[in-house]
Specification:
This protein has 284 residues and is mostly helical. It has 18 helices and no strands. Helices cover 66% and strands 0% of the residues.
């Protein structure tokens, strides 16, 4: 039995270490593994099929695009998921329409991974379908659609993203907040300023980061309040950096004051913010 045939046989093993090692070795073989992996996508064993999809994504050969598109509709959910991931990694835009179609599939996980793949591919044709996916009943899929829209810098999605800042799921709020920062349009600034008071620290952290990306000078007072009173050092650190990035030199005094009685991470962020503002600690 050839080395490749032996490795493909091991893809069906019951033990994680065995099939994981086999998949990694197939990736390491490079181009010679492509055709055998394309054949393995048709294997009767779904474990072999999903591992073949993973390997093909890592190998990066464009011959895999059409077979992986077909695998989006495999009977096994794991195969669907890894086919979507692989298509995102291959970067071939012919995968965009089928991935858009997969956003409406009945299986939650394929919708999630299709959204993530579309974000990686970066094709703006996907924007309307991703906006529609913001209404997905599954929170992770909704957050994946928001993440993808952020990567696509989809300004037209802002009116549909903002209502999710008030949603019940903290993960969705965090991803939407981050996406609005990636889009970096001033029309989202007012809503993001409100989000600085969210009850989840990572939503607040991303709100400060997003306001810095946008360069919203009107966030000055709210960011200073976060720096002075937020109970999370992560948020205080993000607020300090944001104050430095928005470039308002009136922020120097509260930043210098924050150097007292702070933890090391926040002090480092304050020092960087002061440098952004052209101030060196010790200046008069």
């Amino acid at each position: 039995m050839s080395q490749i045939a032996c490795l493909i046989k091991n893809l069906a093993a019951d033990h994680y270490d065995v099939y994981q090692s086999a998949a990694i070795q197939l990736i390491e073989l490079g181009d010679v593994a492509v055709d055998p992996m394309l054949n393995a996508l048709q294997d009767a064993n779904p474990q072999v099929r999903y591992l073949a999809a993973w390997v093909l994504g890592e190998l990066g050969d464009q011959r895999a695009v059409t077979p992986l598109v077909n695998a989006l509709w495999d009977s096994d959910e794991r195969v669907q998921d890894w086919a979507a991931k692989a298509l995102g990694e291959l970067g071939d835009m012919q995968a965009v329409p089928p991935l858009m179609q997969a956003l409406t599939a009945s299986t939650t996980s394929i919708r999630l991974h299709a959204a993530l793949a579309l974000g990686r591919l970066g094709d703006k044709r996907a924007i309307p379908a991703l906006i529609a996916a913001l209404n997905d009943a599954d929170a992770l899929t909704c957050s994946a659609a928001a993440e993808a829209l952020g990567k696509l810098r989809a300004v037209q999605a802002i009116p549909m993203l903002i209502p999710h800042l008030q949603g019940s799921d903290a993960w969705v709020r965090m991803r939407v907040t981050h996406a609005l920062g990636e889009i970096s349009d001033m029309s989202a600034a007012a809503a993001l300023r409100v989000t600085l008071y969210d009850d989840n620290e990572w939503v607040r952290y991303n709100a400060a980061w997003a306001l810095a990306k946008i360069g919203d000078k009107q966030a000055r007072d709210a960011l200073i309040q976060c720096l002075q009173t937020d109970n999370s050092s992560n948020v205080r650190r993000s607020a300090a950096l944001a104050l430095g990035h928005i470039g308002d030199k009136t922020c120097i005094e509260p930043l210098v004051a924050a150097l007292e009685n702070e933890d090391a991470g926040v002090i480092e962020a304050v020092d960087r913010a002061l440098q952004y503002l052209g101030y060196t600690v010790g200046n008069d």
